[in-house]
Amino acid sequence: MRVEYINPFVEATYNILKEVLGTEVIRGSLYLKSSTMAIQGVAALVGLAGDVEGRVIFDMTRDTALAVAGAMNGGEKFTTMDEMAKATIQELANMITGQAVTKLHDLGFKFDLTPPALFTGDNMEVSNNLKVEALIVPMELGPCGKIEVNVVIRERV
User: Fold this and answer.
1) Buried residues in 123-140 as b, exposed as e (16+ CB within 10 A)
2) Which of 70, 72, 77, 97 minimizes the number of CB atoms within 10 Å of its CB?
3) In DSSP terms, which residues pair with 153 in a beta bridge?
């Protein structure tokens, strides 16, 4: 996986989270996970196609998703993953991936995104058939919790 593909997603995640949450965001150490991994409870998935293939997952606990949705909606208190909370997390994924893809297009990379799909529930796993390990970038969000940016990208062969 080329670092040129990863950095725009990391930078966009940091910038957007800091802007919409109004809190300090701390990027943790990068690490790799196998091609099958557990999801924490709420995951927004965006597919990538074109010069590259892959996906980006914004993975978080239910409590983190509720806190983020609340912060993004003017401090509203969410207690369930209702339609507004779900739409807010999907919009967060849209904002981040939109900014990242704009940077990548400026660098000459050409690919498209799928609209974010949101998955919620317990005991979920995600697998990929790209034979590429996922790069995980944890983002600590102060009182909101933690989001893991889970990136799998490879050049189309």
Assistant:
1) eeebebeeebebbbbbbe
2) 77
3) 54
Global pTM reads 0.92
CATH number of 3-155: 3.40.1550.10
d(CA 114, CA 42): 18
Per DSSP, helices labelled H in 22-154 are 62-72, 83-106
pLDDT at 1 over 60: no
Dihedral angle at the C-alpha atoms of 147, 8, 48, 45, nearest 10 degrees?
10
- The label of the residue with tokens 């369930």 reads 80
Domain boundaries, the chain: 3-155
Supply 110's token pair: 């050409």
